[in-house]
Structures are given as C-alpha cells and as structure tokens.
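Researcher: Structure prediction, please.
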Amino acid sequence: MSAGASLNLNGKIFRSGKLLISTDNRSFRYGDGCFETIKILRGKILLQAYHFERLFSSLALLQFQLPGFFTPAFLQQQILALAKLNGHEKLGRVRLTLFRGDGGLYDVANHSPNYCIQTWQLNPANNQLNENGLVADIFTDARKVADTFSSVKSNNYLSYAMAALWAKKNKLNDAILLNPFNQLADATIANIFIVKDGIVQTPALTEGPVNGTMRRYLLNCLREHNIPVAEKAISVDELEQASEIFLTNAIYGIRWVKQLGKINYQNQLAALFHRDFIQPMVGE
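Model: Predicted structure follows.
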C-alpha cells in the first residue's frame, strides 16, 4: 500500500499501518477466511462477475452467514470508493479480505463476515506481456492439498508463502507447486497452463489449483474460438515435455515462462493469447 493510503475495515476508513484486529481473531489464528485479488481499470473492476461469483461461493463453502446488505453491489461500491479515495481508480490492485471474527477453534463468536479492503497503484506494464520470460522451478517441500476447499483463495496460504520464500532465495520469479499425487497444482500467485502436442492444458480443479478468475476467463475464450484445450491431471514429465508454459492471474493477465529448471520454452501461443484476449479487455 502506498504511503498515506487508507483502508476500509467493515465500512470504516483507517490509515494504513494501524493495528485493527485482536490476537483472538480466527483469521490470524487459523487462516479462517478467504480473499480476492482484483484489478481496477478506469474505475471498473475487471472480471467483476467472476470475482464475486467465486467469492460468494467460497463464503457459502466456508459457512459464513451473510447479512442482507452484504451483496456484490455493496462490495463493488465499497471497493471503487476506496480506490477513488486513494487515487488508484485508473489502474490499481485491490485485496478484499474476508474473515471470521474472534473465537477459539470450537467457540466462534459469530459467523458474519468481516471485510478489509486495501488498494495499491499498478504500473502500466501490468497490462503488457512480459518481455523477458519468467524463470521458475518446482517447489517440493510442500504439497497443495486437493480437496473440497482447494479452489478457494484461502487466508491459510502457508504452502504458497513457503514456495515464494524458496523462489526468492533461489533467484526465481515463481515456483510451481504439486499436489499430493505429484501432479501440477498451480504457482504461488497464478494458475499454470502448458502447451503440449498442440493442446493448451491446465490442471483440473480436482487437482488442487485455486479457481482463478483469469484462468476461467481464458478457458472460456479458448473454447469460444475452438482452440484445443483440456483441464486434466498434468505430470511433471508432461510439464518438461511442453513447448510452452504460461501463468495467469487477475493482475498480470498472462506471463510466459522461458525457463523451468534447465529447460527453455517458447512463447508463441502465450503472445497470441495475450494479443487476442488480454489486450482487448484492458484496452491496450
């Protein structure tokens, strides 16, 4: 968050850096909640319908009890108002964090969602395909669980946090996580796609990846244009045999990977998809 920026906690505006939750907070204690990372462009939320559909599905899955006013329209208004207040409405990143309040593991005070909205300014380069391909590798010290809650952007982010620390220590741009069956799940902050045998492939949601909004958008675009695509289990061998690897998320759109371990990759389709599907969305 930029210096002097404000945040919104449950409808009240505070300056950043102020201590706002108690040590009894269940999200602090247990990671009990979820979040959305959202891109704002020219005063609008990109992929808004996908974000709110995933968010409210996650809240239902996590057994939150929503008050009547807590709707997508309400959250949209709160998000855009804060972005405007902070001067981030032209091009900004938003983190919307939802969490349960205080309580122990078995004695929850209540199940209403608390919410915190934060915004940051984005560099215009975020709308462009990365010129230099990413360098990544596979993180093997943790596994992404493949279960009912895997697709949720959970506040329990330990496996990704450790993978990100490992990537930074090893001078990598990102790390790929596997599921318990040694199949691909996703990257630390993105979904993963590969191109192999002329087919665009990405791990199925049953393999443990987060149900990314950009992943969903791109899959829809590919199918609408009759481009061969598959959601499936992907092995490390298939990853290494691929001709291309690219990552997707709501902030960057598509970023291509030039190297995984000692293997180099191309970016022909990644560049094509960015031109045909991402640039029209961001107006570049």
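Model: Residues 123 and 252 are 10 Å apart (CA to CA).
Researcher: Thanks, that helps.
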